[in-house]
Amino acid sequence: MRLPPAVLVFVGVMLAYAAYYLLALVSRIDLRFDKDHQGTAALLRRCSLLKGNYWPSPWIFSGHLDALVMMKLRPTYDPQYRREEVRAADGTTLLLDWAERSDMSPSAPILILLSGVTGSGRSSYITYLAREGMQKGWRCVTLNYPGTLGEQLTAPRMYSVSSDVGRLVDHVASSFPDAPLFALGFSLGGFLLTKYLGEVGSRTPLRAGIICSSPWSQAQLAVHWTGWAKTHVYGRHFIKHFLKIYSNNKVFRGHAKLVHENIVSCKTLFDLHTHLHAPLSGEESIEDYYLANDTGPLFANVKVPTLVLHALNDPVVPQVEEISKNPLAILAVTQTGWWPTGLSWIELACLQYIDAHLQLSSTDSSPMGR
């Protein structure tokens, strides 16, 4: 029986794409770490997902499609959060969302979740991790960045800073002094976590940190964001987010360092940094702002085990090479990004890394030292 030409064409296209998928997209995870560090080696023996090949989604073949699905199209889950408010030193109100069960022990592990710049406790990747964490018997707590949930601000700040992470970590540690603490940050959340860890060194109650798809320098990010998609899609998305918070909050009116006409005319990430973020941060110039927001030099001072996950096709994050110089760090680089439904590889790998720490800490001969 002869097949219709349309069927033959379809089969040919599918076979060609299957070959492309297997030869070009499926690739070995590029794993970089200090092979002489006993603790890191012990962790990796318990992290099978960080070894071997990475199998990306067969139908999300672009970093831009990855980002679109993750931000807009992925199903969400409602963890039934408990809301808590804490104050930062400058008067900013920090909204925390707790995912927990009533029967949890005060010593249950706690996972601190830090979303991307426009994300919150409602973001799909945060809700999936909160659900999975609760199923494992962990408490999960998310920091919602100021203004993200539409609340009125109590201080002239519409983004989080590394001191907010410190405030959150210290608050959680004092609330649950017997619980092992871990922190996981995505994109901006990863940047804030890196900055916090580099600033405090060993003076943190965190057992370990996980940094996913994080920019390492705000200046490098602004330079990296060129081209139509990054300027007109991601840039507009972020600018719209911050301008909405700016317009909806009276606390910015009459601010001595803000020029309204310049802010509402922002077209690029550099414009946003120059006219909004740098003045609100208290820095005297955009150069000072960028100098203060470069985590590259700080990473050498990170003194807790840290997993860094990065995809080469990430449209937002520039490539970084210096991470593997820290003996406590594991850098895992994949060719492409997320699976768009259910728990993705990156989320499962993060959870497995935390499980590995908990397994090691339960043994008397733990090489992690904490």
TrEMBL record:
Task: List each copy of the Serine aminopeptidase S33 domain by range.
Answer: 129-319
Among Gene3D superfamilies, the record links this protein to: alpha/beta hydrolase
Q: Which InterPro entries match?
A: AB_hydrolase_4_sf, AB_hydrolase_fold, ABHD4, Hydrolase_4
Which residues belong to the signal peptide in this entry? none
Q: Which UniProt keywords apply?
A: Hydrolase, Membrane, Transmembrane, Transmembrane helix
Output one GO MF annotation. monoacylglycerol lipase activity
Stored Pfam families? Hydrolase_4
User: What residue intervals traverse the membrane?
Assistant: 6-26
- Belongs to which family? Belongs to the AB hydrolase superfamily. AB hydrolase 4 family.
Q: What is this protein called?
A: Alpha/beta fold family hydrolase
Tell me which species this is from: Acanthamoeba castellanii (strain ATCC 30010 / Neff)
